[in-house]
Amino acid sequence: MTEITPVVPVDAQLRALADRYTSASSVGMQLLNIVGGQAENLLEKLPDSVKDRLEFVAERALSSALMAANKSRGVVPDQKGWFSTALTTAMGAAGGVGGLPSALAEMPVTVTVLMRAMLAIAKEHGFDPDDPDVMKECLMVFATSGPLSEDDGADLGFLAARVSITGASVNALIARVAPRVATVLGQKLATQTVPVLGAAAGAAVNYAYTSYYQDMAHVHFGLLRLAEDSNTPREELLEGLREALARSKVTRL
Length: 253
Known about the structure:
It is built from ten helices and no strands.
């Protein structure tokens, strides 16, 4: 006898995605409790020479990560989410030991590991990691503001964005995403260079960012899967996600 898989109502799936979104966003507060300070002040801790280069560094990191992560799939099999978290946490500790120079050197590697983890999550939700459109969706996950941001509206806007990634348009997309990523990476660098904490701060910040972006990737590709399975426009589901988040906030209050 064939076992029938029960169909989960769309509203219930949206509530589950909202819960995951909320859980991902709460990581930032945990991070701030570890390192101290306020998110808006973190960037001011960086030298002006570094702040001026952040957007360029972000573009380079995203470009190299996109190519390296996809190519590595033919050599190294996909790993579980906990492995990516453990790996980036260890790299963050190493990057934090030497202050800003070692943190800058570690950053592109961490972005590549995150990109690779996102591709694995896309596959988990039934999408082809080799599809250029799926790679574009991974870039859009990077466009979320990061765990230190409270700009939920902008994050959800990026979740709904649809941009062609064929040909040269990938560079245009990276350029569009880079300012967001530059802010996130700047916060990450500043946190890793917190005096005294060193390696501990580096490990903490990478743990937080890896957990955040993997959760956001699950929300992103979960929303895409729900759109396809329910034949519902993504914009309509996005509004449902906003409403579920609003109800969740009221319940917590």
